[in-house]
Amino acid sequence: AWTKTRSSVVANIAVAPDGTPTGYKLVEDTTVTNSHYVYEQINLSTIGSLTYSFYAKAGERTLTGIRFYSTNGVFPTSQSAVFNLSNGTIDLTDGSDLIASMQNVGGGWYRCIATRTSIATGLTNIAIQIYTNGIADWTGDGVSGLYIWGAQLEKGTVASPYTPTTSSAVNRS
User: Fold this and answer.
1) Model pTM greater than 0.85?
2) 44-84 per-position pLDDT tens digit
3) At a CB cut-off of 8 Å and minimum separation 6, what does 135 contact?
4) Integer Cα distance of 146 and 8 in angstroms
5) DSSP one-letter code for 13
6) Which residues partner with 130 through β-bridges?
7) Cβ burial, residue 64 (10 Å; 0-12/13-18/19+)
8) How far is C-alpha 61 from the chain's CA centre?
9) What is the pLDDT of residues 10-46, one digit of tens each?
10) Torsion over CA of 17, 20, 22 and 25, rounded to 10 degrees?
11) In whole angstroms, what is the distance from residue 80 CA to residue 97 CA?
């Protein structure tokens, strides 16, 4: 259950990378000069490297990002990676301890990946954000967006193959 911030999500509107009709569209709202994203709050019980990944495809917007942020010291600062879905490049990483990469998986989809190290336990947020013209804050039009699917958070520095989960975490060997 993602928390939507100045955005909405339309389910089952695109063919996902696995060939199923389960891709989502993340749509910006019309809020004036602000950011548009979905996030999940996670309670980290261990300190260390975390890798977050999701699949994205350009819609009317072609820039997306992963943003790690917390207010209780799990991460010392908010940091983001911005991925360009029109040419497959990383346009920005704004932190010294954030490592980003992306993989072209075909059909216009990219797997966007970011790794960061937590320095404390507790609640933290990880967001999938829409960007436009290289900026995070703008006035949305209420219909533009991009496609997302297959978000995954795991311990360590490697994004392993996507494993769907519906209600509880999956442990890997």
Assistant:
1) yes
2) 998 999 999 999 999 999 999 999 988 788 988 889 999 99
3) none
4) 11
5) E
6) 36, 64
7) buried
8) 14
9) 999 999 999 999 999 999 999 999 999 999 999 999 8
10) 50
11) 10
